[in-house]
Write a structure and sequence with these properties.
Strand content: 35-45%
Radius of gyration: 16 Å
CATH architecture: Alpha-Beta Complex
Shape: globular
Largest sheet: 5 strands, antiparallel
Distance between the termini: 24 Å
CATH class: Alpha Beta
Number of domains: 1
CATH superfamily: SOS response associated peptidase-like
Order of helices and strands: EHEEEEEHEEEEEEHHE
Length: 208
């Protein structure tokens, strides 16, 4: 799954990709977490826009249920099977902007956090779906290298594929299945990332 990530200077870094910025501040977030308002890219008839949405999607059938936990991830393999996602992948696609993401490796009784980035150090774009100002990140089975840390990884869309994915006249699942995962690198980081209140650049520094 993908439960934490990093996004810095989203406005500046997407200036050449979007036409409009809707009230997104160009600030750094080294511990983006579920329920937080975070920048995503949506497509409108007059072009793409960068805007804030809450991470965690509440399906219409779950609205009003106090004990329901918002859905933060959706599996690529079952997008067309789940009632919560089937319509959204056809009509409501978006892109999450990130510098990198965190994942935890289970070692006996411990979970060891690691920070992942592209080997070419370029910006990451996670495929996602949205509804009612909320979004959910799409994940896929992890590539062999990543599996040593976790069995899932966010589905990363290359920059040149963004417009194609956001075009709802095309089949979203087919597009995502055709995308090859980029090469990623990772390093162990401090357990300070476990607490959402911690949020500074020290979180992504290697401790090994």
């Amino acid at each position: 799954m993908c439960g934490r990530y990093v996004v810095t200077k989203p406005v500046a870094k997407t200036a050449g990709l979007v036409k409009t910025n809707i009230k997104v501040e160009d600030k750094d977030n080294y511990n983006a977490h579920p329920t937080q308002e975070l920048p995503i890219i949506k497509s409108y008839t007059n072009g793409k826009a960068l805007e804030n949405c809450d991470w965690g999607l509440i399906p219409s059938w779950a609205e009003g249920k106090k004990d329901f936990r918002p859905l933060i991830n959706a599996r690529l393999e079952t997008l067309m099977e789940k009632v919560s996602f089937k319509k959204l992948i056809q009509t409501s696609r978006c892109i999450v902007v990130a510098d990198g993401y965190y994942e935890w490796k289970r070692e006996k009784e411990e979970k060891i956090p690691h920070y992942f980035t592209r080997t070419d150090s370029s910006l990451m774009f996670f495929a996602a779906i949205h509804q009612n100002n909320q979004f959910c990140i799409i994940t896929r089975e992890a590539s062999n290298k990543i599996k040593e840390i976790h069995h899932r990884e966010p589905l990363i869309v290359n920059e040149e594929q963004i417009s194609n994915y956001l075009n709802i006249k095309k089949e979203g699942v087919d597009i995502l299945q055709s995308i090859r995962p980029p090469d990623l690198k990772f390093n162990e980081v401090s357990k300070d990332v476990n607490k959402p209140i911690n949020n500074d650049s020290s979180l992504i520094k290697s401790i090994t």
